[in-house]
Amino acid sequence: MDDEMKYLLGQAVQAREEAYAPYSCFKVGCALLGEDNRVFLGCNVENASYGLTNCAERTALFRAIADGYKPYSFKAIAIAGDVSRPLAPCGACRQVLVELCSPGMRVIMGNTKGEYIESTVSELLPGAFDRGAFIDDKEI
Known about the structure:
The chain is an alpha+beta fold. Helix content is 27%, strand content 22%. The chain is built from 4 helices and 5 strands. It has helices at residues 3-15, 56-66, 91-100, 121-124, and strands spanning 28-34, 39-43, 74-81, 106-111, 116-120. It has a 5-stranded mixed β-sheet with strand order 2-1-3-4-5. It is globular. The chain starts with a helix and ends in a 16-residue tail after the last helix.
């Protein structure tokens, strides 16, 4: 892993400290790297109605979009949790990654011990349902 990705994973580990997880006590952090090297942090935010819980990855992506970044303007994302093996995004987050990130974008899945696995968005969700299924090369 290069220094830029080590830094991003470290930011994800730190971001998990801000998580609001009173029900599961499972804190997750995320760091999203924009093309201009700006880093957007995210953490999971739980709700008593679990379906309303927001994952760290979606928090970071939605924060970036709300701050004016356009879909596909990201270089990498790192996810971290205090788990025994590197933490992968859930299915909902994989779908959001497909919608907002380029297929080849780097995905660093890690844990608080610094272990990691690297993948890409397309490798995480092969055969994804994407905007191409119902929009013919139109810009959103």
